[in-house]
Write a structure and sequence with these properties.
With 108 residues, the chain is mainly alpha-helical. It is built from five helices and two strands, in the order ααααββα. It has a two-stranded antiparallel ribbon with strand order 1-2.
Length: 108
């Protein structure tokens, strides 16, 4: 993942409703969810949910497929893992990130 893609993904997640939607989809796993199920679960009106889903799709964090008359949204788990890998790529400057016994670390 490059910096521009990471910024786009993080910007999409930097809104409370979108973060809730994404977490719900991650929780559903590869099976994903329909907008009506997401709306009921998160208590987000359909038109608002549609806007947020569009932003997550644009950031490549969510995919959408038409199944008959319904849309089905699924988390892009590979993309999510790429973002996590990008964020932790240089974690702790190649040193162990585990806390040292008796000392509290303020970073990583």
């Amino acid at each position: 993942m490059n910096e521009k893609a990471a910024v786009t993904a993080l910007a999409a997640l930097a809104q409370d409703a979108r973060l809730r939607v994404f977490r719900a989809l991650v929780g559903a796993g590869p099976a994903g969810m329909t907008p009506s199920a997401l709306s009921a679960m998160l208590d987000i009106p359909g038109s608002t949910l549609s806007f947020h889903l569009k932003e997550l799709v644009h950031a490549d964090l969510v995919s959408v497929e038409r199944e008959g008359r319904n849309l089905h949204y699924r988390p892009a788990l590979v993309r999510m893992n790429e973002l996590l890998a990008y964020l932790t790529d240089h974690c702790c400057m190649d040193q162990s990130c585990s806390p040292r016994s008796g000392k509290r670390r303020t970073t990583c």
